[in-house]
């Protein structure tokens, strides 16, 4: 978890962060459509409350789209991070991690049905690459050398991590997309349509 980076952001925004381990970051690929995105935000905050966790703030993830192709930009989600505090009834970090998984499943599993009910097909674009107190996944429809340039967090000197993993793969049996970029493994390629990801753990 890049705690120093997030504390720097929090200080500038007037946000108070709990101690490391007592807050989590949800990396969110949000719908492009404004109405669908509003529902996604509402659903996320609703399930946090249901599970007794504390919503702290939304952070717009800084990106630089220089050099990205039209097709990539056309499919690019709105990328935001939700900062979530451990609820008073959650006894420790491991219990908190289990709550985060529960929230993630409750949020994502009914999306297709909810999108039909509300006539918001864009709602199915909502995807959480990661939601943890320990790990943040930065991924996208990018080449390996574009990841650090696109996600400017990754070139910020305040970003410190005990482990960083970059993975790139061919999209052999699926059409390449932002949400299908893989955050783990090792299979370098040079395909222009290859999704790529970087995982930061600290």
UniProtKB/TrEMBL annotation:
A Pfam family that the UniProt record links to this protein: GATase_2
Cofactor(s) the protein needs: [3Fe-4S] cluster; FMN
Biological processes annotated in GO: ammonia assimilation cycle; glutamate biosynthetic process
Matches recorded under InterPro entries: ET-N_metabolism_enzyme, GATase_2_dom, Ntn_hydrolases_N
Domain Glutamine amidotransferase type-2 positions: 1-184
Polar residues composition-biased segments: 184-202
Gene3D superfamilies documented for this protein: Glutamine Phosphoribosylpyrophosphate, subunit 1, domain 1
Origin: domain of life: Bacteria
Key words, A-Z: 3Fe-4S, Amino-acid biosynthesis, Flavoprotein, FMN, Glutamate biosynthesis, Glutamine amidotransferase, Iron, Iron-sulfur, Metal-binding, Oxidoreductase
Keyword Cytoplasm assigned: no
Keyword Iron: yes
SUPFAM superfamilies, alphabetized: N-terminal nucleophile aminohydrolases (Ntn hydrolases)
Positions of the UniProt region annotated as Disordered: 181-202
A single GO molecular function term of this UniProt record: 3 iron, 4 sulfur cluster binding
Coiled coil region boundaries: none
Pathway assigned in UniProt: Amino-acid biosynthesis
Family listed: Belongs to the glutamate synthase family.
Protein name from the UniProt record: Glutamine amidotransferase type-2 domain-containing protein
